[in-house]
Amino acid sequence: MQHIRSSVAGEIEQVNQLIIEQLQSNVPMVENVGHYIVDAGGKRLRPLLALLTGAALGGCRPAHITFAAVIEFIHTATLLHDDVVDISSLRRGRPTANATFGNAPSVLVGDFLYTRAFQLMVQLENLPVLHYMADTTNTIAEGEVLQLTRAGNATTSEQDYLDIITRKTAVLFAAACYGAAALGDASEDECQQLATFGLHLGIAFQMVDDVLDYEGDAATMGKNVGDDLAEGKLTLPLIHILKQGNVAEQELVRRAITEKNTADIDAIIVAVNRCGGADYTRQRAREHHDLALAALAPRADGPAVEALRALTRLSLDRDH
């Protein structure tokens, strides 16, 4: 990641500084919760995508710095809300904001970050980007609700799963690329092509995340192994067991999902491996990885484009 970031290292620092400035509030709780989750770090993949896309189109402008902060604020807001809905206790290797400050402050500060993001977007004075981001944020919210309605449902299909992760995760990856391209005066065709790149990258990234929930290490990932199971989320590794597993394995998964119970997590991990659930999910992730690279292919070579390719490869080859 350090090598990938190197071509926009200065711009990343500017984004981080802008985020700190924009967390200022007359209400201390806003700053406390906001700084707590932002200071936890994370991969910063989405703002990095925006900066690399801007750099690939001729160089980052001040608007790209602002837009990258917008993307990170929206993502952070979704994390705050997610952790409340999922009753999560660990993220990025430390207690979640809701575990530290309570559910109500987490939800309300998430709202603050959403609105601060739109305040920044208005400053860009770019109506097409504002329109695109309004639609994106609405789609993310629909994805959250869709996932909530499917929680504990052992009949979720692979298409249902793909719809959820596209809405919840991939559309913000796509928006980071689309908005940065638009702010770089790219044509609509170029903007859409780069959005396609971001969309498939986001899908691949989330699929690998869902594999790591059953084969990763809590200390490395910064979250508890089996969190998805505890939340009743039927992700692709488990959907594959329901297709390819024996009767006992299928019943094991159905019971765990409907009861949102991690008591049988060890047996489920064994089933994921025996049935090839992890391998199948990684295979599907590779398909989207390949589609992302294909969408990026028309771009001229350069440090930023190579960094985008490297980031795409890293979406598959990682342990957290």
Automatic annotation (TrEMBL):
InterPro entries in alphabetical order: Isoprenoid_synthase_dom_sf, Polyprenyl_synt, Polyprenyl_synt_CS
Requisite cofactors: Mg(2+)
EC number: 2.5.1.90
Record field: catalytic activity: 5 isopentenyl diphosphate + (2E,6E)-farnesyl diphosphate = all-trans-octaprenyl diphosphate + 5 diphosphate
Keyword set, alphabetical order: Magnesium, Metal-binding, Transferase
Highest taxon of the lineage: Bacteria
GO terms classed as biological process: isoprenoid biosynthetic process
Coiled-coil residue spans: none
Molecular function via GO: all-trans-octaprenyl-diphosphate synthase activity; metal ion binding
Cited function: Supplies octaprenyl diphosphate, the precursor for the side chain of the isoprenoid quinones ubiquinone and menaquinone.
Protein name listed in UniProt: Octaprenyl diphosphate synthase
Species, as recorded: Kineobactrum sediminis
